[in-house]
Amino acid sequence: MRYSRRGRVEELILEGLERQGALHMTLIDPDVTPPEEAGEVAKKAEEAGTFAIMIGGSIGVSERMVDETILEIKKKTSVPVILFPGSTSELSKHADAVWFLSVLNSNNPYFIVGSQMQAAPVVKRYGIEALPLAYIIMGDGGAVGYVSQARPISFDRADIAAAYALAAQYMGFRFVYLEGGSGGRPIPPEVISTVRKTVDLVMVVGGGIRTGRLAYRAVEAGADIVVTGTAVEEAGDAYSKVKEIVDAVRKAARRRRGLGGP
């Protein structure tokens, strides 16, 4: 009998965390960034030290758009490309992996397990590595909260976010994502810290992280992976913005490990 094993991308993530303490990933929305521009942004992000490129959007994204975007990115980079799908139409055989996510605090079972059932055969057929991710939407939820019919968790209820994350751990997820919503307020450090103390999962944090200072605070509080999208999209110089955030992530990871240094 064959049993499920961790794939190459997951092993790379775990090795990266072991080596660096925390990682940064750049999110590119194909609905906002055309393929050629996405390739250039990804190239600059890799040069600035981002660990992986995530591809996805909440609305207006088709499989063809995702395919074209990934192909342009792969021409210019060597980092993993991970799908962050807002729907089953955002899968691509050209990706290295997919965040196979369940929106745990959705009011609609479709976003907890229904769309995942529809996507699973496609993921297997395409041979995409699946990264099991529990997705928890907080704050005002942003577009993703609206689309996924979530009941966003208030930032003053860190205990509820931690309980959802613990349930995810007991159900076998290996990653948990605290989402503040694109362009919204970032997840407060005290929320991240509470979840970190509760679970042993790899914790991803995204939404509203626009500066190195905010990235530093997230990692200091316990985030393993920081994701930025809007900040990079709006930056006139993608390299400088990603570098600012990557440097902050690495500095906070060193401090968290008690290594100090600049």
What does this protein structure show overall?
It is a single chain. An eight-stranded parallel barrel has the order 1-2-3-4-5-6-7-8, surrounded by seven helices. It has helices at residues 8-20, 35-48, 63-76, 109-126, 142-147, 158-170, 189-198, 212-221, 230-234, 238-256; strands at residues 23-28, 52-55, 81-83, 97-103, 129-137, 175-179, 202-206, 225-228. The longest helix has 19 residues, at 238-256. α2 (35-48) runs parallel beside α10 and α8 runs parallel beside α10 (238-256). The model has no long low-confidence stretch (mean pLDDT 94). α3 links the parallel β2 and β3 (81-83). With 262 residues, the protein is an alpha/beta fold. It has a single domain, classed as FMN-linked oxidoreductases (TIM Barrel).
